[in-house]
Queue: 2 jobs
Job 1
Amino acid sequence: MPLHSCLNLILIFHLLMLIPSSSSPSPEELSQIPSIFLQHAQHPEVFDWMVDLRRKIHENPELGFQEFETSKLIRAELDRLGISYKYPVAITGVVGFIGTGNPPFVAIRADMDALALQEGVEWEHKSKVPGKMHACGHDAHVAMLLGAAKILQQHRHLIQGTVVLVFQPAEEGGGGAKKMLEAGVLDNVDAIFGLHVSSRHPFGMVISKPGPILAASGFFEAVIGGKGGHAALPQHTIDPILAASNIIVSLQHLVSREADPLDSQVVTIAKFQGGGAFNVIPDSVTIGGTFRAFSKESFIQLKQRIIEVITKQANVQRCNATVEFNEDQKPFFPVTLNDQNLYKHFRTVAGDMLGTNNILDMQPLMGTEDFGFYGEVIPGLFYFVGMKNESVGKFEQGHSPYYIVNEDVLPYGAALHASIATRYLLEYSTKSASTKGHSYDEL
Ligand SMILES: [Zn+2]
Ligand SMILES: [Zn+2]
């Protein structure tokens, strides 16, 4: 047996001896859990298995609410690990349970969907589906949550309560989290933790902050109607191209003139479609874009003003306009808000694993995450796990066709998930030993 295997077995044995299931662990015993879980996750048996799963998922990317094969793979692994689960939840979602089946409940979440993007990276496990790619690391997220499941199942004597494994569909714009909530996955759950791999931060570091970290977002599309005609005879037409151009300029005033400069907001027009000839003024123009804000109030205000500016500015130019937000296909995402107490818990556990000097404060981003839906209902904590290492390759931003994952990050994600959940239950249970709730009906 190689030395590292011996060492690992010794560590696992040590942990088993450390915390007998009947007694409450001491602070020293608790502080050792994260590093022992990390060593467990880095053991070739667990590491190679996670790498293999991630590569399988990478080769067969599936878009939101179509993650049937990914979901099947997850269920097969949960079956092998002897972990019970509910399926289907929100079409392709899977919800697993590890522990006593009784409260307290804590959830850890992974998203499963890929992007409509042609992979540009040439490697052995390149996407086999033309026009689809895991370019946001969700393949790694699934492998990490399965890694956490394996670690947790092997240490289930430590779980004082139940860990809920949330494998959700359609994070990329489809609002899978919203559908999971509607299916009741967080009923009776006290807290939820989620992570995202980060190409922008160095490998070995984790990044988060308390409070709002990612913006609320929405999409809109407007049709500006005029009267088409000969481009050389504008007096006989009502030009929607000029009207749309003025609308776009006016929309820029919402952020630059109406919003508090200290309250970050974005309005971007990303789509402009009108006309097809050099000498024809078209009947109508379609514009579309996204808007972002860091508070619910600012978001609602922005939405209202987008409608007013588009319709009224169109009228100034003798055009008419309709504005659609298409919420059924592209639901509004709420702000991702990190709970203060959960952040403290995350800092303690991640600090025990990596050292506090490897926890970075996050700069909030105008990007968005449907994890925000969970945080609206129960306390939530979202964090990033750095994977940038130039000796492994060139790390492009998410959603790039050249996006790569540093697979060395997989044990970190798995061990963080597992130790944050385990410690939450141990520390929660010791604090409120009298908590008596009701268990999941189906358990
Ligand atoms: Zn993404
Ligand atoms: Zn993502």
Note: Residues 251 and 309 are 7 Å apart (CA to CA).
Job 2
Amino acid sequence: MAIALKPVDGSADTAEYREVIAFIDDGETETVIAEYLRRLGQNNSVVARGSLKDAIKFFTDHESPKVLIVDVSASDFPANDLESLANVCEPSVQVIVIGKRNDIGLFRDLVQMGIQDYLAKPLPYDLFSRSLHQALGILPLSQARQRAGKVIAILGARGGVGATTLLSNISWLIAEDLGRRVALIDLNLQSGTLGLSFNQKSNQGLSEILHNSDRLDPLFLERAMITVGKRLRILSSEEPLGSATELRANAVNELVRALQKQFHYVGLDMPSLINSDMMEVAKSADLRIVVVTSDIASVRDAARYINELDTGNPNGRTLLVLNNILPPQRGALKLTKIEAALNRKVDYEIPYAKTAGIQASVMGKPFSMQNGTATKAVRKLAHGLVGNAVIKPRRLLDVLRRKG
Ligand SMILES: Nc1ncnc2c1ncn2[C@@H]1O[C@H](COP(=O)(O)OP(=O)(O)OP(=O)(O)O)[C@@H](O)[C@H]1O
Ligand SMILES: [Mg+2]
């Protein structure tokens, strides 16, 4: 059943209503919120009669507003359902939760998840007003309550080890299997192949953005990106060979920060020859994935990358992935030898993808679009990165009390 949206100014057109959307499951609260929004002059806002589940369904195919107000009264496991909502909305959306329980424990759990506020019915007018003002940016918001997407940088220990292939497959699965919004940046400005992995020709989107870093607004970013899936976008360029294309760490980090507001994951395909600025960018990523193959040169350089990345950044995590770009052959280094040489465990190993690998490089389709052993291994990696953030109900007593 379609959800009826009621713009607070009485208009029939809901297309432009991007400021505040509320899903409320009782008439009284619905009227209070609509009335308050109208008085605040928030005419491009909408109040709908519906539950948290309706909101999840709605935002699966609609863009997120700036502020979302949801009602968890009908939800048995509000934290779990809110996690599902977070997965279909942009990270930058400010969420105010309304419920029927006045429970400080639940409030604390929700705020920890990045929810802006939890208010129990009947709606306390003053608290609601303060909360909405903060969410709309009229009052300052505390740092802790701002959600941002995670940054993943992928680095090949050497050229041709499959870094771009793995990034495109991981991202495809994070976007398609796990429903998160993903933006990828190909930092190989002259001859990057991230677009080709999705059968797309590069535009000049990334260069345009880097030359106009003063206007990193969502519309400009959206226009510069190539859409390769419902929730997957790429920023890349194809600069002339031989041109001067120095990337500055500041400019890239600023772009990453802008994308983090709109996407759950920002993936960086790092250049195969890394300079100090790009090393700085990789170091500031939340997660760095170093890709190694089973040969001596690659293992030597993987050790150098890991060493450099782990120096001076206690917050970042570095994963080591062994990628088999060739069929098993005699003389290749064994896993145990690689781990001994690097003095650490390989976190994931990706098997050789025979036909799927060839099809992927010729037809421009990530091999994870079809099943196979390599897809299974990449899926394990993608799911490992996202984590199965199922939040258990806090106390059994709470659940029993609500059911009884
Ligand atoms: N697990 C795999 N099985 C089979 N082929 C693979 C596998 N991983 C990558 N390849 C193939 O290896 C080749 C090189 O991969 P890719 O371009 O992703 O490497 P790269 O590290 O990004 O290279 P560059 O240094 O040029 O950026 C591609 O043809 C790709 O299809
Ligand atoms: Mg590459």
Note: Residues 162 and 323 are 7 Å apart (CA to CA).
